[in-house]
Amino acid sequence: MSTENKAGLDALLTPEESVLVLIDHQPFQFANLNSHEPTMVVNNVIGLAKGAKVFDVPTILTTVLEERGGLLLQGLQDVFPEQKPIDRTFINTWEDQRVVDAVKATGRKKLIIAGLWTEICVAMPAIQAAGEGFEVFAVTDASGGVSKEAHDMAVRRMIQAGVVPITWLAVMSEWQRDWAREKTIPAATEVILQHTGATGVAFAWETQLLAAGRTGGGA
Questions:
Q1: In what residue span(s) does the Isochorismatase-like domain sit (predicted)?
Q2: Which of 81, 112, 133, 167 is the most buried (most CB within 10 A)?
């Protein structure tokens, strides 16, 4: 179960063991998102998705009642333009066998989930999957609830079930793990520049100063 590896090196994420499920980042859900600033959740989930693509982590997109709730967030769909989200009627994603089969087909046991809303569409599948032998990680800043209390209570409930709360940049950092892994650095750096706010700005500035130093320029 997901409670087995709470500490030690094996508790950290690797690209080879991870599978990502992104749940219901749709207009209807965003319309009543009150636990976070919606633009931050948009930024963070797209950054997470881009990170998954950089590290070749299988990613499953899902929607609920797409015809009524709206299409998947366009910026998220653009990361995986070839993928048609699995559109469900089940509130609990893990009760849709197509999603479960897609996850199991990857052969991976570290299940990373982000979605709207935390208290429903994240908590339900996270708790169920944790009870079925998956190590489950809930990306709290790429998710959100109808209120801060709803989000916070959902995170507490998931922790009691053995689910690990984590943020999107921490996920990507664990995937990278070592800056000597040069193959993924250019693309990972681009994600950082685009989606980490002040950190990305500072990184771009540092890169500018380093470049100026190499050419003998600068102030």
A1: 18-168
A2: 112
